[in-house]
Amino acid sequence: MGMSGADVAAEAADVTTSTQGRVDNLESKVSGLTDEVQQLTGLLRSALGKLEKEGESGGAGVGAVVTGDAPTRGTQEGAPQNEGITPPSDPAVGPGGGRDRGSLPQGETTETYGGGTGGFGGFVGEGDGFHQNLYSKMRVSVHAPRLEGGKGYYSWRRAFIQAAKTVDMDGQFVGATEPQPDVGDMNKPKATLLAEGYSEAQIHRSLQAFHFLSSALVREPDKAVFGRCVTPKQALDELDKVHNPESQVATQELLSKFQNFAMPADKNPTESLIAMEQLASRLNERGVRVEASYVLSLFLSALPAEYDHAKLTLQSAPTLDRGEVIRVVGSQHSSIKQGKSHRNSNRNNHKASEQGLLRQRQRQRRWRRQPHGGRRRGRCYRCKRRGHQSFSCTTPIADFMTQCENCDGYGHDKSKCPSAKDEEEAKGETAVMAVAVASDDEELDVAREAL
Predict the structure, then answer these.
(1) What pTM did the predictor assign?
(2) What phi, psi does 403 have (nearest 5°)?
(3) Are residues 63 and 71 in contact, defined by beta-carbon separation less than 8 angstroms?
(4) Three-class SS of residue 86?
(5) What is the reported pLDDT for 120?
(6) Can you tell me the distance from the alpha carbon of 447 to that of 449, in angstroms, rounded to the nearest whole number?
(7) CA atoms of 114 and 120, how far apart (whole Å)
(8) Which of 188, 230, 216 is nearest to 116 (CA)?
(9) What pLDDT is stored for residue 450 in this prediction?
(10) 184 CB-contact burial (10 Å; exposed 0-12 / middle 13-18 / buried 19+)
């Protein structure tokens, strides 16, 4: 049986009334929740404002809990005594000053001063929140990802920055989001940092960032790199350099150069020792720890054979001392240098005598090559020509040279011999001189008779 129009209208009115009631109920609940959210927001703002005022006046900084007093440097006085806080175990920590900061359980961070890196706002480490909520306290634990050998460095770096960003501490490592400049040198005492113009809040934040990074380091080379740095950003930058693939290749090449160091025999060994120490220093900067005793031992192994006596002297010593090594090796170097100088002097004298003998022989050779030296090229006994011997002579008979009967020369006969002409001229001159002498004698006799 179909419904009439009046029944349909009545049912629609009932549905509308029921729906409107539900909507009104939901609106009332939402209004109540809005009031609670506004109340919670106001409490948060008031708590944060109180903390900022205390940080500016030298009280508890951003990294402290609302219920605690301002902590002192490197201690937990006035801070909540969280479980798990132990004395400093960081290799970079020094007593009384510098980066004296409490350490954390491995991999955990806490917001209280002396712990790792906590949060800003409602996020803290193992401590309480920044606000006193009427219903509960917000409590968040932040763990820094650990840098282990099997993990990729850059994936760890991204996770580490994300974890630091969660507690609003990424600006300490990236350096782009911090409203205030980083503390210059965290190795300085707190009083010195305050005198330089840094606030307690800045000092607290830098120390917390240091602990946040130190809790992530596992390998000793990474801890050694961390211990040489004075700011959190510098520590992360140095780790970037060490774990860079190109830097790792350069480190391997540097290590190979150090272990296979070649020492020239003509060089002062002290200079070679200084060069090896510089290589060791560069390796230490890259995270490869090289002890001074190992440098001295490798230096002795690299000495040439001329220094065997110095090696035996130093190897018999109970410990290797740098000053003693330089003294013994330097003395041996001086002795070797003097011996070489003496040998060079003798060699120069011998060389000078050899050069004098060579010059004398050269003079003799030049004299023998001259015509009066008697050294001439031989003649062929068959054709009397020069340049070949009789067994290989191919000169025709018509080209044979004639030999003079007067002077035994070659190339002319007796009729054309210049020596015969010279003899005839000499005989003629002798006859003329004899006649002149005879005439002079006759004139002398006549003169005597006249007297």
Answers:
(1) 0.34
(2) -115, 130
(3) no
(4) strand
(5) 36
(6) 5
(7) 16
(8) 216
(9) 58
(10) middle
